Amino acid sequence: MLDRSFIRQIESLQQAGISFCVATIVDARGSIPQVIGARAIFTGKGLVHGTVGGGTLEVTCQKKAVELL
């Protein structure tokens, strides 16, 4: 379930006309830095809200978001 601050952040970005990507952990093998369902919002400038666990995973998500945007 999305928390209200996550939804507010998405609404704010939409109202401002800022493109964004949402990364969500949907599966895991072995240990992961966050739980399944963890989400993060990225703009072309980087992480703006949430986390998928930091470290390498978050950097990878950020690079992919920038590439897609």
Structural write-up:
This protein is α+β, with helices and mostly antiparallel strands. The protein contains 2 helices and 3 strands. It has helices at 4-16, 55-68; strands at residues 21-24, 39-43, 46-50. Strands 1-2-3 form a 3-stranded antiparallel β-sheet, sandwiched between helices. The protein is globular. The model has no long low-confidence stretch (mean pLDDT 91).
Write the layout of secondary structure elements.
Layout: H1 4-16, E1 21-24, E2 39-43, E3 46-50, H2 55-68
List unreliable stretches of 5+ residues. Answer: none
Q: What can be said about the biggest beta sheet?
A: 3 strands, antiparallel
Shape field: globular
**First CA to last CA: what distance?**
25 Å
pLDDT average, as an integer? 91
Secondary structure category:
alpha+beta
Attribute tags:
about 70 residues; globular; alpha+beta; three-stranded antiparallel sheet
Concise overview:
The protein has 69 residues and is an alpha+beta fold.
